[in-house]
Write a structure and sequence with these properties.
heterodimer, A: about 475 residues, alpha/beta, eight-stranded mixed sheet, two-stranded antiparallel ribbon, 14 helices, B: about 625 residues, mainly alpha, three-stranded antiparallel sheet, 7 strands, about 5% strand
Chain lengths: ~475, ~625
Amino acid sequence: MARPRLPKSTIECPDCTKASGFPLGQSEGFSRRRFMKIAGTGLVASYFADVFSPRLLQGATTANVALRNTAKNAIFIFLPGAPSNIDTWDLKEGAWTPSDFNATSYDNNTVRFPQGLMPMTAAQLNKVTFVRSGLSWAAVHTLGQAWAQIARNPGGATGSIAPHIGAVVALESQLKRQPTDVLPGFIALNSSGIPASGYLPASYAPFQVVPAATGLPTIAHPDGATRFSDRWGFLQQLDSSRTTGALGKSTLDMSSFYTQSKALMDAPNINAVFSFTAAEHTKYGASTFGDSLIVARNVIAAGKGTRFVQATLGGWDHHSGIYTKPATGVNSLYTQCAQFDPAYASLLADMAAMPGSVAGKTLLDETLVVVVAEFGRTVGVLNNQAGRDHNLRMTTVWAGGGVRGGNVIGKTDVTGGSVADFGWSGNRDIRPEDVTSTIYSALGIDYTTMRHDDPLNRGFEYVPFAKDGTYKPIDELFTLS
Amino acid sequence: MKQWIALAVVAPTLLLGAEKETCPFGPFDLRSPREQQVSLYHQLSVTAEAVAPSGRHRAVGPPAGVISYPASINYIDDEIFGKMRTDGIRSSDLSSDDEFLRRVTIDLTGQIPDSATVTAFLADKSADKRAKTIDVLLASDAFVDRWTMWFGDLVNNVQVSANSREFAQGRNAYYNYIHDSIKANKPYDQMVRELLGANGDSFASGPPNFWVRQIQPNGPIQDTYDNLAAESGRMFLGMPLQCISCHNGLGHLDQVNVYLKGHSRYDFWGSASFFSRGRATRVSQDPNNKNLVSWSLVDAATGSYQLNTTSGNKSARAPIGTQNTVSPAFVMTGEAPRAGEPWREAFGRMLTANPQFALAAVNYLWKEMFGLGIVEPADNMDPTRYDPNNLPSGQSVQPNHPALLTRLGNDFTTGRYDLRAILRTMAMSNTYQLSTKYTAATWNESWTPYYARHIPRRLMAESLMDAIAKATNVPVTYTITSGGTTTSAMKLPDTLEVRNNVYGRFMDEFGRGNRDDEGRSNDTSIAQSLSLMNDGTVVVNRTHRATANSTVAKTLASTTDPNTITDQLYLTTLSRYPTATEKAQAVAYLKSGTLANKTEDLQWVLLNSLDFLFD
């Protein structure tokens, strides 16, 4: 059969339609010249640090945009599975709405909120701004989840090498690190399996922690500090390739992680940062997610080098039984909100009461707290399984780090399924790329940066096409009165 | 991420709602970014010519003059040493006997050699002892375990993924099929044909799970056909056919894959159409648990790939003019099934007959043995860029050794896809047997794609776990869901087993992945070094003399001589004798305190040494 002509593709792939670098292998490019220059010096032991030094950014290109620079840290709260927006951040009351949601008006009647579902968060709404004109790219969990965390199409050209947003933040903060900054730049709590450092060095990958009241299980040596000190000393003496690099880059990486581990173990009271009391555990909702936000708070408050913390709470994929009452023990919106609400609200309240690093600022003032999912859920009446299915329309939730709380940006229509007013200068749907641009801008990171050290030699954009103006920060978060 | 997704999700038709989905790529690429990335210099070196033209090399290479290389054992050495000679690159020396033995044992069986094997091998004066060792390893049960793990990774055999549920029963059936096939040395092409054309119940036999693993619950059946075709391409052709499952190559893949740039979504549908007569139906396996289902897979006599979808994970499939269906046509050749030939069987026949099938396989296998594929990324092979003498304008050659890739592929094909034979050829080569230590000059990372020295790699998660247990002589007993127990992590049927105890978490930390959206990785991290130093259960308790039968306890019970203790711990842990310097340091260390304590300390130090962690 002859191959018929297909109609022209209407699919737009943000990453693979445009190339931002050089054709494959054709041009020598910055990284190769750099590579050869350094490799030619024979500085095998140190050149990777050099190649990946943030100073290399001097060779990167940007669009030189204005940045907010209002935050020192970010806490990225990820809700995979995707909560229903019209039952939470963008409440649409209908015949389906359970009466115990107790829909209530807040912030001078600008926000309707399910007080009964999230009573503690309701009391913090003056710190919170909802961005309701968000739109995901894909209604597939794994795809949408990765997209939200790497700010690009995971299946696109640079998706396979892309670092997590937090790894970029860790890299960008590297130059500001002090000798006392013993903690990794990026810590992930209860977040196993998330994207890591991509093509960046593994040292910028998330340091994965499963929170426990007693702290990190491997922070102290079981046979005691004296034995450890003796063992460590002999390990360095006996295993000379740790420093000579005779076995190459991967072994040097491992050796460097040992050194970082040792610094962590030696730092005074570091395990206190990862530990918590029974009272705190209860206050934050007595859940692993709550424990994660206690540790997130502690890590940021400690000011020991961590700039980006992710905490994850899954279980929102309510295709069926979304309103099943918690007494049944079955996962539903009630059970998940019962974990989210005390943890999130306590985090905001605690950080607002803790001093920041600068006089007159609170810790919350210096820390952007953003709540993100991979997409939203269908609107209106429930499906025949008493649940809600995947839908692209979604709300993101912002607080701290210069965000003016008590506001709403963007307005959906009466159903919550479409946008009535985009509510920002972009006058279009707010994409994960815009959310990421906002985080970077708040942290003073130029979101239009294009690095030239990527292995594909295409040029690696922190946010694809941001330099062309395709995506940009939601500045209204910081400017609304 | 699967734990974030309710496992018993009823699969409703995906509603795209009021919003237009603009780029419904899906499902998500299963490899982790790090896994594909290899490392900066590896990727930079994807094309050896482009990265390092010979003139450039001479500028930083050794002085001109006659360079000698190890003898050429086979065509691998002809190609590898030949290119090095042309470009004036020196190789490292051949590995010593102990280095060779440890490496080849880990690579072929996933295990470290025990001290008796080491001492016997070192004492053996016969000229062919390396060949004999390779043959012993190829015939061992441990070989079957290690390459069953490899094949399970390749086809992502796993009890549960974001989209699919094989259940432990189906996963075990699949595992047993792979294990038995490799044990019997079933030709690799035959295995692949059996998977692609499988019929039967997914709990009762393994191969139907190939289909079950690709079921896409939240979309039309064409999404499942697409997964089967795309994943077949990734696994068995080493090509990202996923890319053209949503859109044509032209205008999208120009910078990614020149071959696929020339292919359309319609071409892809032709491959997916081969699966459109497969019929998988649920079979309830437990009256008390409606969720526990196997799948019964058969071929229907009729059926076709319909162009009639508007929902799901791909953009709409709409009729083209009056054409409502797409007939089967293999994406690489356009070939159609023979009259009366079941379509999936035909697909398997065509795929395994295509030269790219053998090239993808040998490239994956080469990467397992040498640490760097001849083509990287190994699942983005671009046949249009294989031939240095026939390259598209402006493009560079993709394989770092094009002729070698061809010869390996031909060898694998003429050898009837014998896994052991091609691995034997690789292990026998002096290229494989080069030392990781490079003494000819200051090492230059741009020589990596020349394979001028063996590339050290951190042991894979299961290998490392088994090595710790074996070196310390304190085994772990793992319980497999619906599958009994085992004392070897390499025998675990997927990478989700023993997920929730210290050993499972340890192997997670060491990158065993989930055969879904976290690929296997041999990256390193702070969490790994903290665990190696401080994890009481996995590591530190195993160094204690109080732990029954531990190497330390047994050694101390048999001798108080620091020299003997040092030798024994080196043999059991690093599978070699200490060097003279190491021995002097270790003996002095053992004498510097209470002998029993110091013996524990030495055991801990050796477990944390780079020589133990890397291969």
